[in-house]
Every structure is written in C-alpha cells, then in structure tokens.
Amino acid sequence: MTTTAPFSAPAWIRDAICWQVYPLGFCGAPRHREDLGGEGYGGADGENVVHRLGRIAGWLDHLVSLGANVLLLNPIFDAVSHGYDTLDHRRLDPRLGDERDLDALLAACRERGIRVVLDGVFNHVSELHPVARRAIAVGPHAPEGAHIRWSGEHPYGFEGNGDLIELDLADSVVQDSIVDVMTGWLRRGVDGWRLDAMYAAGPEAWAPILERVRAEHPDAWILGEVIHGDYPGFATASGADSITQYELWKAIWSSLRDRNLFELEHALGRHAEFLAADGGAHPLTFLGNHDTTRIASQLEDGRDLAAAYALLALLPGIPAIYAGDEFGAVGVKEERPGGDDAVRPAFPADPAAAGAEGSAGAAGSLADGPAPAGSAEPVEGGGSPQHLALLSPAAAPRILEVHRRLFALRRREPWLSTASVTVDEGTLTNTWAQITLTPSAASPGVASAGGADPRPLTLVLNLGDEERPAPGSVLEAVSGADMLDGVGPAPDGTVPAHGAAVVR
Predict the structure, then answer these.
(1) Which of 70, 423, 83 has the alpha carbon at shortest distance from 223?
(2) CA 397: distance to chain centroid?
(3) What angle do CA 241, 245, 246 make, to 5 degrees?
(4) Residues 6 or more apart whose Cβ sits within 8 Å of residue 271
(5) End-to-end Cα distance, the chain
(6) Are 325 and 294 in contact (CB under 8 A)?
C-alpha cells in the first residue's frame, strides 16, 4: 500500500464513546419504499414524507446516561429499502422525514454535547439512482458509463447484488460528487463519516477523496469499514482515522462462547500491534452492529455477557454500543433476503419502555442462555420492522446499570482509549485472564481523577463457576448471575464467577 500525506486525527475522538443506531429500523420505517416508479421517485417535496426521525431525539438523554457522546447513525439518506441502496445522498429518506427533522436532531445533539457521525454509502448506489440509470443506459464505453464499474458489458453489482451498482471511485466526476456530499453535510453540522464498505474500492481510491475533505474539515472523524487485513496500513494509505476492528469483535464472542481465552489473548496481541502501528491508534471496537448477530444471542451462557461488556468498556480504542445491547437485546442475523431484520428492530419512543418492548420469546432461567429472538408483531403493519426483543425484560435494568457503571469507569480513566494492552500468560487459562492496561506515550499528561499520573489497571475475566480472589484492589466488579438473575453480588475482593473485575 502507498501512503498519503499524514493528517492528525481529531483530538475529540480520544474521548469518544459511540451509541450506534440503525435509523430506519429504530424509527419503525417500512422496509421498502412504496412510492417509487416511473422515471422519478419520492414525489415532490413534502409528498410521502413521514416524520419519524424525532424518535431518536427522545433517546439522546439515554445516550448521555450511558457515558456516550457520539451518535453514530447508519443510513439516513433517500433509499429504496434498507438504506444501503441510495437514491440521493443530499436528501433525507422520506420514511424518516425531511431536512427540518434532521436539523432538529443535530440541534438537539449539539445542546447535549453529542457529536453526530453519518453513514456514507458511496461505494455503491441503487440501480434506480440517476447516475446508475444513465450509465447503464449508455453502456460502458460512453463517458457517463465510466461513472460505474463494469464486468464486461454488465454493471458490477456489489458482492453479487444486482440492485447495488458499484461506483468507480477512480472516476473524477464520482470523486467530485463524493467530496461535495461529504463536505456539504460537514458544513451542515455533522462531525464525521463512517465509510461503508471502504474495503471494496481500496485505500488508494479513497486517498484523494479524503485528502480533499480533510483539507477543508480537519476536525472531521473518518471511520472506515474494513473487515479483514492490515487495518493500520489501510488507514494510513487511505487517510482514515479509524478502522472497524472486526478481528477483535469475532474473538470476543467466540472466545467467551467456547471458553477459550487463549483465542482472546491472541486477538489482544494483534490489537496491541495495531495500536502501536502508524494509522492503528484509534480503532472502532464493538460487540455487534447492524450487520451482525447480537452479542446476547452469540453467547450460550448469558452470564458471560458480563465479561463482554467489560471488554468493550475497558479495552483501548473507540467503543461503540449498538443500540439495544445495553438492555440485552437478542437477534440473529441470517444469510437470506431480510436476514438482517432481527438485528435492526424498531424501538419504543420512550427508553423507559424498552423492557416492555422486549418481552417476546424470553423465558426460563437466564443462566441457561438467551432465548431466541421472537417474531414480534410489526409496529406499523406489513413491511415494518420487528420490535426490539430482549434476553429478559426483568434483567434489562440491571444490564443497563452494568453498562453505566463500566462506562463511568472508562470516563474516570480517559487514558484507556490509548492504553497499551498485555495479557498475563502465567495466569492465563481457558476460563481466566488478567489483562493489564497501561497508560501509553500516546496519552501524555492525562491524569486520573486524583490529579496524579494514571496507574495501570487490570481487567480480570472469570468464566469459571466459582468466584476467585482478585489480584488487587477491586474498583468495579460485575457478576453475570447477579446481572441476569438478581442473585446478589459476589463477595468483596473477588472476581465473580462468570463475571469480571477491574483491579488496581
């Protein structure tokens, strides 16, 4: 990979904790547009617009209560169905509302000190997008045909999807359009972009685009979706600030589910290497997102969610809570049309009602593992999302409280975002891990609440059936059994069974 001229990552992302929302599902929008046809779509301004986006504004105080300060939105722009089949990057999807609704959400976020990051689906567009239509009409050898990618005489469909036409990001007209959209929304008040499927076009295609965007908006956060490979190298070559840390995501749920913390130790070694490399200092860490099975559905023993939540809150990087996980949401992604629906549900208007919304399908002892995601009734008739489904409504307040405690600790120790991470191999077993987090040179001058230089912390995971003595003074402990079944906390000075403790 070649490298671009270096840009400094915006300083504000070191304190960033994200709450990620898939708006079309969250707001209860129909899965498919019913107003598309002929040569146009969407009708005139004001037609077919339903003002749903305000539902997110009702959750902003909840976001702040988690300790989060960034609203990371999945697609909000005019699209055919799931939002990744864009029709117009300059217009809000009418299923969500209009410009006034978005302006109101941005204003409500600013009032609370919340940054807003939008999902930039620029790699591909709907086959109904005007650029795609014109390119397909004239063919690959005409000037307008050069705006999209081709496979011989056929338009190239993203990952085999014929309705998602890949743009050619090397084309100067396409580059100009992407820069114009990104900078235009940044001027409107958004704070950054998640670049969907950034891996597809590659870093060299993105480098000239991001160089132009960053020249005008150096404080914008650029987050790239990359699944595999050399994350720091990709970031450096493209100019992105952060890359999605899918390796760590997979290792967390897999190691906890299989009782194999050696797998986690290996992944944390890779994570440490990424953090130390140019371009790797600010990865996005997560337990799940709009494309993955919920963490509460990944773990056969729901008590081990305690360890997963602790890892998300304490490990270096920029953590993102996928909306609903803080209540113990369940949902399984399936490889079929509509297979994402269970992990993109509709939310109630009031956060206090989240437990009531999640009653479908949950039953039995929670320690026996999560109930499957139920097929809840749609919220607004056929074609609408499922309701939010939870592991157990009774446990939801305790799961939420655990998130608040762990992320409050993260806020008290802000150096954790750039900490170095090591695992004590001498004490490592399949069910026990001591993970030491140490202030790094990347966070000079950061002091703890007491005003002194920060001291290392150790995150201890215990997947065993018995509590064990903690290797230090316990600052915070989470018992999976207490979190799920309300059986009471483990004794002081211990690492709870199927739980975690933070010690110093």
Answers:
(1) 70
(2) 22
(3) 145
(4) 245, 247, 248, 283, 315, 316, 317, 421
(5) 41
(6) yes
> What is the distance between the alpha carbons of residues 402 and 404, in angstroms, rounded to a whole number?
5
CB-based contact 327:352 (threshold 8 Å):
no
The residues, ordered by sequence, that sit 6+ positions from 132 with a Cβ below 8 Å of its Cβ are 125, 126, 148, 155, 165
d(CA 503, CA 483): 19
Q: Which residue type, as a one-letter code, is found at position 68?
A: A
Q: How many other CB atoms sit within 10 Å of the CB of residue 88?
A: 17
Backbone angles phi, psi at 374, to 5 degrees: -80, 160
Determine if residue 383 is left, alpha or beta; phi over 0 gives left, psi from -120 to 50 gives alpha, anything else beta. Answer: left
Whether 275 contacts 420, CB under 8 Å = yes
Angle at 154 between CA 148 and CA 156, to 5 degrees: 45
Element (H, E) at 151: strand 150-151
- Burial class for 310, CB neighbours closer than 10 Å (0-12, 13-18, 19+): buried
Integer Cα distance of 313 and 340 in angstroms: 26
Backbone angles phi, psi at 241, to 5 degrees: -85, -35
Ordered alpha helix ranges (H), 34-94: 54-57, 60-65
CA distance 485 to 498: 13
Q: Are 27 and 101 in contact (CB under 8 A)?
A: no
Give the burial class of 26: count Cβ atoms within 10 A of its Cβ; 0-12 exposed, 13-18 middle, 19 or more buried. Answer: buried
* Distance from the Cα of residue 20 to its chain's centroid: 5
Sequence-separated (6 or more) residues with CB below 8 Å from residue 473: 503, 504
Token pair belonging to 103: 């302006």
Q: Name the residue with tokens 């008590």.
A: 303
Q: What would the DSSP string read from start to end of 360-403? A: TT--S-GGG-PPPPP-PPPSSSTTPPPBP-BS-TTTHHHHHHHH
Would you kindly state where each structural domain of the chain is located, as residue ranges? Answer: 418-503
Measured in whole angstroms, the distance separating CA 93 from the mean position of its chain's CA atoms is 21
CATH architecture label of 418-503: Sandwich (2.60)
Cα-flanking dihedrals φ and ψ of residue 91, to 5°? -130, 135
Q: Considering the entire predicted model, what is its pTM?
A: 0.92
Residues 6+ apart with CB under 8 A from 468: 432, 462, 494, 495
The mean pLDDT values, 10 residues at a time, for the chain of 504 residues are 64 97 96 70 62 97 98 98 97 96 98 98 97 96 96 94 97 98 98 98 97 97 97 97 98 98 98 95 97 98 98 98 98 91 95 67 33 35 73 96 98 97 98 97 55 87 98 98 97 98 98
Contact predicate 119/190, CB 8 Å: no
Please give the structure tokens belonging to residue 191.
Answer: 């704070």
